[in-house]
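This section describes the prediction task in plain terms. A model, or a person checking by hand, is given the sequence of a single protein chain and must write out its three-dimensional structure as a string of tokens. No templates, partner chains or ligands are provided. The sample shown here is typical of the held-out split.
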Amino acid sequence: MTARTWWAELAWLGGPDAASGVRIDCDDDGIIRAVVAGSPRPERPGVEVLRGLTIPGLVNCHSHAFHRALRARTQSAGGDFWSWRTLMYRVAELIEPDSYVDLAAAVYAEMLLAGITTVGEFHYLHHDRHGRAYEDQAMEAAVVEAARVAGIRITVLDTCYLAAGIEASSEAGGGVGPTARTRAAAPLQGAQRRFS
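The expected answer:
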């Protein structure tokens, strides 16, 4: 990357009001080195003018990119958490490293269009559909590659599930019924083994 300068008509810099005439200087590594409010509009070539209000990039710190494959499949009457989870496991069984790159890149591109520039990705698809660990952490590499393709910054939040359900949080069951408590204690099975 080469050093760049932007000039924003208005920019939110953290105060109660937007600042006018904000110059933003970035170095060769893409690191912002100066943000100067009240700057006159530069006349030199190469300065990009940002019209309207400029805000810092947003952060999505809780992403499950593969859930994108569930969009529009869970909005039906009569379901509960467990029916949703069954569908989610079916989707998880179908995802392989190559398809994960494509799916996650599309998710991250949508985030960028919404102003999100950094994502925290909960990564728990560690195993193939037979419960075997991928070599070289292929699924983690897939989400990192997807972020690179989309152009978004990523932090991979490595996650491990040791049980198949929700733990009861008190002696009374924490508001979770007996069926849910039984499922919580159950070992991981089938597609669930991808999450360990």
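For orientation: Residues 168-185 have pLDDT under 50 and may be disordered.
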